[in-house]
Amino acid sequence: MEHSRTSRRQFLAASARLAAGAGIASIVAIPPAGATPETLRGAIAEIVGDAQLREGRVTLGLPPLVENGNAVPLTVSVDSEMSEKSYVKALYIAADGNPSPGVAIYQFTPMSGKAEVQMRVKLAQTQKLIAVAEMNDGTLYTASREVKVTIGGCGG
Amino acid sequence: MSDDIKPRLRVPANAKKGEVVEVKTLITHPMETGLRKDADGKLVPRLIVSSLAVTYNDKPVMNVTLEPAIAANPYLSFFVKVEESGTLKFKWTDDSKQTWTAESKIEVA
Can you tell me the ipTM of this complex? Predict the structure, then answer.
């Protein structure tokens, strides 16, 4: 009897943790609420799990100040060789001030040659852009950069 | 309207063996976020190009998942390592599962 009570307590603790996790997920899923640094952290945590994020190796290139957020040029590069032994497996790009935090996910192979990509993004307001690079050995590197936006680009 | 959607490529025609070449792509597409309202105040449903897959001689090079934060007429540029002559193929897919393809040959001297 004593034993079963203990496991019930453990079960309750585990479901509380699960519920907390689900809470984060549901915040991310509601679009009108807007992305905040918290929902962004939740979204990143969903992608990378508990793994440790290290600063560095990732560079975000974008203008520090843009007048129009409709199409902002963005370059993301990762300082890494691209060989069978060591390469950048994935690159996650997110923004914390858009209606939803995701921007793009790149999945590379050694044939990508160089982990450097360019795109144009919509930015709703002044905010922070974040990139997370996942190496083939599972290590994660991150960088972020603030961009000031005068006119937002979400057409709302 | 979807007839207006055209992919464009800029891929070098020649490369040295082992060279890492830059590839530029663009597809004309409105990238509706699902948040914009039309003249009658109704929300325009989301319709974006949600992925681009790139292969060289049918081996995967790169996959990109695009979110509504990517600007209209998505322009993407990236690199490919070329070891032998071949065909670089591109495939864009939108939310309605419609696809567009393009390809370009690279000659290795």
Answer: 0.93
A116, B79 contact by CB (below 8 A): yes
A155 touches chain B (CB under 8 A): yes
Six-digit token pair at B27? 């597809």
Q: For A14, what's the count of Cα atoms within 13 Å in the CB-facing half-sphere?
A: 6
Pull the structure tokens for residue A145: 């950069």
Q: Is B97 an 8 Å CB contact of chain A?
A: no
The answer on pLDDT for B72 being more than 90 is yes
Task: Read off the pTM.
Answer: 0.81
CATH architecture, range B2-108: Sandwich (2.60)
Tell me if chain A has a CB within 8 Å of the CB of B92: no
Amino acid symbol at B1: M
Q: Assign domain A31-151 one CATH number from 1.10.3720.10, 2.60.40.2470, 3.40.50.1820, 3.40.50.2300.
A: 2.60.40.2470
Answer yes or no: is pLDDT of B5 > 80: yes
Q: How far is B3 from chain A (nearest CA, A)?
A: 23
> Phi and psi for A4 in degrees, rounded to 5?
-65, -30
Q: Which pairing describes strands A140-151 and A127-135: parallel, antiparallel, or unpaired?
A: antiparallel
